[in-house]
Amino acid sequence: MHPDYDNNGWIYFTYSSPGDDDSVMGDDEYGTGTALARARLSDDGSELTDLETIYAQVPRTAPGRHYGSRIVFPGDGSVMFSIGDRGIRYPSQDLTDPGGSIIRLNEDGGAFEGNPFIGVEPGNLRPEIFSYGHRNNQGLALHPETGALWAIDHGPNQGGEQLYVAEAGSNHGWPQVSFGTEYDTDEFIGIGREAPGVKPPVHVWDETLAPSGLAFYTGEEFPGWQGNLFVGALYAERLHRLVLDGETIAHEEILLENEVGRIRDVRQGPDGLLYMLTDESDGGLYRLEPVSESEP
Q1: Residues 33, 56 contacting (CB under 8 angstroms)
Q2: pLDDT grade, residue 159 (50/70/90)?
Q3: In the prediction, which pLDDT does 57 show?
Q4: SS3 286
Q5: Going edge to edge, which strands form the sheet with 263-268?
Q6: What are the residues whose beta carbons fall under 8 Å from the beta carbon of 239, sequence distance 6 or more?
Q7: What string of DSSP letters covers 246-284?
Q8: Which one of the listed residues 66, 154, 172, 240 is annotated catalytic?
Q9: Annotation says 66 is catalytic
Q10: Bridge partners of residue 129, in order along the sequence
Q11: For residues 102 and 151, is the Cβ–Cβ distance under 8 A?
């Protein structure tokens, strides 16, 4: 929901948008790309109205994976969302291709004026790109005090999941800088774990989590967790609680493991409780509540 939803009614969402296949990958009849749209609910809440497509990724490519995507509103009239590398990898280091990037637009469309590659030589860099070198971000969250953009990124095989702070123009390395291996051969990917010009991650998980969903807790229901960062996990079926000390992790706790299934997203609700969404075939919406002091 838009931060001023009560007044404007806008709901933003990303989706897989079909179109002409501009890639050289296979013989698919059409390609796909991540698109951002907004709409309003009808008065009876039964359908979407005033639907507007604000952005559609081009080139559209095959295969159909690694779309991202999460959405955040920095509060300055812009909207930010993530696009994965689409399983092709090289777009993440190509500033003429939005794949593997975090995108920043005006709330009603068009590149945000403060984006880092506007007017930069040779003049064909994508003006909507905020940061790049990402693999498949499925968690974005704004720090409640600093406003910094935190992100989690899926690693390849055998770990390499990353948590980092994305900044305007920052390069996060994928696929040249990697912390994981190839799926078929277990061969290491890239030139190493660091490189000049690549911003290092805050934390790397060497085990496979498939992180999805990221949220800072600011509520009153769990006072001991204020300022903590919560991470969901698909493959590991976990909820992680991270205690931060600046841009380092001071403590990590696994709250749930193999209890509710593949956690796709985690959010703080308006009631100050934590909510998790799973993507199982019988998935659901789960709520985490504090234990009463009277309970054993």
Answers
A1: yes
A2: confident
A3: 95
A4: strand
A5: 263-268, 274-278, 285-288
A6: 230, 231, 232, 233, 254, 255, 256, 263, 266, 276, 288
A7: TTEEEEEEEEEESSS--EEEEEE-TTS-EEEEE-STT--
A8: 66
A9: yes
A10: 103
A11: yes
